[in-house]
């Protein structure tokens, strides 16, 4: 069963003092329940694309798997909204599965359970990557150019991972964390090192997003939106370059600016 990421449906619109029929696009919100070794672990509210990558990235970022080889099998049943994960080890030796978890698309209080493992899983970046300012602008322009579904619906978060040059992968989801997990899962599945990579993101750089970047292991995150004070504090502590307000021909560097080099004269 293939789920559509968005639908076009008849609606009633009010404009210019009148009510009239028209059509509008809106995004799909898909609940996916993750079963680990036969026990329920979490229900992720997501967009139904690249689900294998989403599960890989989600499990890795939450410390369920520390390497790809610990994941024996993934079976996804989209028709029922379940994914069955089989690990090579007893999951109770590492984490607790006793309480059902809901990971909402709004990325709000339903994610409180994550904070228990954040300190143990977040990595201090060892990245030596350096970029010219034009590379930062080019990556953000490319993200916006490839965000066709967002432009149609206004209801998705967009993210990409890149080396600033040849390597570039774009993913989208109704949940901002999910979009990042899909990118992480892609890199895990394809055995791509993330140390010298950059996350390009459409939304605000919050503390949760910064921690997610640290869990993935990248050295830089750039966004067209603003950061928060706690996110910048964490970026400084974790040696991550945080760049915000990447718009038109300007951006702001909030931490570890040494990774952005001056243009050659």
UniProtKB/TrEMBL annotation:
It comes from the Bacteria. GO terms for cellular component: cytoplasm. GO terms for biological process: Mo-molybdopterin cofactor biosynthetic process. It is found in: Cytoplasm. InterPro entries: Cytidine_deaminase-like, FdhD. Keywords: Cytoplasm, Molybdenum cofactor biosynthesis. GO terms for molecular function: sulfur carrier activity; sulfurtransferase activity. The active site is at 107 (cysteine persulfide intermediate). Required for formate dehydrogenase (FDH) activity. Acts as a sulfur carrier protein that transfers sulfur from IscS to the molybdenum cofactor prior to its insertion into FDH. Belongs to the FdhD family. This is Sulfur carrier protein FdhD. It comes from Staphylococcus agnetis. The gene is fdhD.
